[in-house]
Amino acid sequence: MAKKTVDALGAAELRGKRALVRVDFNVPLDESAQITDDTRIRAALPTIRQLIDGGARVILVSHLGRPKGFDDQLRLSPVAKRLGELLSKPVAKVDDVIGPEVEEAVKKLQDGDVLLLENVRFYPEEEKNNPEFAQKLASLADLYVNDAFGTAHRAHASTEGVARYLRPAVAGLLLQKELEYLGKALESPERPVLAIMGGAKVSDKIQLIQNMLTKVDSIVIGGAMAYTFLKAQGIATGASRCETSTTKKDGTTIDLLKLALDLLAEAKERGVTFLLPVDHRTNDKFADSDTPNVTPDANIPEGQMALDIGPKTEALYVAEVKKARTVIWNGPMGVFELPGFSHGTFAVAQALAESDNLSIVGGGDSASAAEKAGIVDQLSHVSTGGGASLEFLEGKILPGVAALDEA
Ligand SMILES: Nc1ncnc2c1ncn2[C@@H]1O[C@H](COP(=O)(O)OP(=O)(O)OP(=O)(O)O)[C@@H](O)[C@H]1O
Ligand SMILES: O=C(O)[C@H](O)COP(=O)(O)O
């Protein structure tokens, strides 16, 4: 990687210096805001430990979820607690991101101390990449480290803007490791290459499929994204979560149903196998069930919500995984957090574990699903980035990486 990393910082650049470290602590939470998977926190430990050992004063900044303003459910306090346990040392936490309370807490830091700021997305300025906000963040520290691979595809104030005002701006060890691994693995992948896409961030990820069609031999779709493709073809989607349009930052609207049809046509033209669910597991509400309904075909009855792929789809997707030599997976096949609707996700995970293909699973919830399925050791790589790994594998330049100092 041609970017400077924390390894390049000598003792004089670290001891006593305030390091603003962007991490991706966007971890899955349950209904009572308890962390259900701490993979992303553990993944940031090497960089944090290296900075502590070097005598830096570590100021961590992260987002959690997609809040609209301050939201008590999405505070980072449980993360500070978990991080403290993992580091075996206290982690101070402030309830703001900028302002007097934060400045006071930063002033109190001693060499080797760790402070976690509040959820940076409580400020809309973060996602707008507002220069004044970025400047205020930058003013808290003497150097910037970006270790948030999972958020490196976002040009936000704490991932991109801040590096304009704070130098040195270097990559953390996780960011470096992810870029090196993914870069090498996909230089000339063994074919056939399969992309498995699912999850809930439909409007974000459906827009990545076009580029992906030029890189892969087959795509299988599960999760909520599947219903956009089915609806576009006139198949009933019942009460399932189904995104049909999205508004871009510039205010223009994208018709996702039209996009879905265009993608299906392009896949056909390019000879890319494109598989969609042929049956589903459903419920009449967003809740678990010991006995989910199974639809006889791809249509979802009125009032029913598809929460997982069905058994016939599962078999199709498992067969596709077994045929592939390289598999990239982002997004669970269903609401795997509910045991009755975890079958499709775990079946695909099991197939990956049993195959000897190169397998890369990426994303906060996808990594958590792999962990829950007990297959992490049988995968080639578990990336902390979902959207980020997809965009990187497509050959896009990640803004959070581009902003850093050259090596
Ligand atoms: N059929 C469905 N209906 C509603 N939600 C679904 C469905 N299938 C999957 N999901 C939800 O999708 C979520 C995960 O999607 P997401 O796109 O965030 O994946 P990810 O692996 O976390 O990737 P990233 O790191 O990019 O966020 C899970 O919480 C899961 O419950
Ligand atoms: O979970 C992720 O993919 C990252 O934390 C980025 O989150 P975002 O999609 O809300 O920007």
What can you tell me about this protein's structure?
The protein is 35% helix and 16% strand. It has 17 helices and 17 strands. Helix 13 runs parallel beside helix 14. The protein starts with 10 loop residues before the first helix and ends in a 5-residue tail after the last helix. The structure holds adenosine-5'-triphosphate and 3-phosphoglyceric acid. 3-phosphoglyceric acid is lined by residues 24, 26, 66, 150-151, 154, 201, 363-364, 386-387.
Primary descriptors:
407 residues; alpha/beta; Rossmann fold; 2 domains; 6-stranded parallel β-sheet; 35% helix; binds adenosine-5'-triphosphate; binds 3-phosphoglyceric acid; kinase; cytoplasm; phosphoglycerate kinase activity; glycolysis; Phosphoglycerate_kinase_N
Shape: globular
Number of strands: 17
Radius of gyration (CA) equals 22 Å
Helix percent band: 25-40%
The fourth-level CATH homologous superfamily of the largest domain is: Phosphoglycerate kinase, N-terminal domain
Q: In the residues, how many domains can be counted?
A: 2
Beta-strand percentage range: 15-25%
Gross CATH architecture of the largest domain: 3-Layer(aba) Sandwich
**Low-pLDDT sequence parts:** none
CATH topology of the largest domain, what is it called?
Answer: Rossmann fold
